[in-house]
Amino acid sequence: MKTYLDCLPCFLSQALRTARIATDDEKKVKRVLDEVGMMLRDIPLESTPPESGRLIYRKISKITGNLDPYREMKSESTKKALSLYPSLKSRVEKSNDRVLAAIKIAIAGNVIDFGANWGFDLKHDISEVLEKDFAVCDYNKFKDGLDKADEILYIGDNAGECVFDRILIEEMKKPVIYVVRDVPIINDAIYEDAVQAGIDKVATILSSGTDAPGTILKTCSSEFKNIYKKSKFIISKGQGNYEALSSENRPIFFLLKAKCGVIADDIGVSEGDIILKEIKNR
After folding, report:
1. pLDDT at position 39
2. Which of the listed residues 13, 130, 142, 240 has the most CB atoms within 10 Å of its CB?
3. Tens digit of pLDDT for each residue in 171-197?
4. Those residues with Cβ within 8 angstroms of residue 255's Cβ, 6 or more apart along the chain or in another chain
5. CB-based burial of residue 55 (10 Å sphere; 0-12 exposed, 13-18 middle, 19+ buried)?
6. In whole angstroms, what is the distance from residue 120 CA to residue 204 CA?
7. Cα(120)–Cα(124) distance, rounded to whole angstroms?
8. Residues of the chain with confidence (pLDDT) below 70
9. CA nearest to 214, candidates 3, 60, 70, 16
């Protein structure tokens, strides 16, 4: 997905918010705004938002000296999500279609976002998503691909959200490679976050090798890219991964909530909609 003009003020807003979390030094915060503002001038609209986000968050870390400002928030998100795990598992067990129910729960977890969806209310937003109908639902294609798959490549998104992914992984009953970011970036999940969520009990955890808020293939490790190229069934969670991979010619199913108008317009849905969409660019 390309960068739209509406992405630019969002980048600046995220930079201000992150800088204030990273440091109490207002001079450093001002410097972040000054330098990120200068960076926006040179952002090519042909690039994906995660490519620009990668550079912006690197700049914030360099100026503030804080490499993981969201660390405590990520851990707390996972604890809150784990407290909901028993009730969500019960919901799946009572459903007529356990896999479809687990997909919706996995998408509900996508509300946990300290980037584009800062003002979320976890319990309220999850309940709202679980009552929604899908705006796009390629479930029959998903089931067909799942039935044929020997292994699943599951590209994760945010910390806390991993708990909801775990429920879907448990229902698919196939070997899963669960992909996380290589180093901290916003509240995206890294290895430690996935372990805290219990992903290590149900899947093999793999770092993509990237430090971007999305799976930008040219920044990923050769190990990940080799697995990605061979995978016949891929699940991609969240907006950042959609932004980075939506132009790919691979068997990818995108699971997300459209949390901003730019993403919604690109997919052809309304803001707030939930999506299970296969995109094949052939």
Report:
1. 96
2. 240
3. 999 999 999 999 999 999 999 999 999
4. 103, 106, 107, 110, 235, 236, 237, 238, 275, 276
5. middle
6. 30
7. 8
8. 113-120, 281-282
9. 3
